[in-house]
Amino acid sequence: MRQPVLAGILAAATTLTLAGIGLAQSAGGLTSLRGAAIDEPVVLDQVFQQDTQRFNREYRQQPPLIPHSVEQYQIDLKANQCLGCHDWSNAGDRSAPTLSMTHYLDRDGHEMDQVAGTRWFCNQCHVPQVNAPALVDNAFVPSVAR
User: Fold this and answer.
1) Average pLDDT of the chain, as a whole number
2) Is the residue at 44 inside a domain?
């Protein structure tokens, strides 16, 4: 007796679900966040290029911005191309800024000879600098007087 009741409930639930999906699709008036249908290409207004002049830091302890393109850099579990120039062993030969010593400390504060795993993915904190408009309005005022 239990199986016919459960089968009836399951059939009713399936029917209602399919009807709901059909109504939702026919309702119309829904718009995507990007303002175009999923199969329409979206044309970008402008691609902002890397700025050659170094930007100032806007607040204390802000990670430095990257003054060059890193678009083709490999940064994954096996390789980090940034270290080819910025590791303490290479920076002098390449005339590149060295990493802060904090990048060579493990979680417990012990010094290491290689970059700590917690600092391996440079683009977690550092981003290429570009003179692009703000994505949202804000009232941020830099803490550094210019």
Assistant:
1) 82
2) no
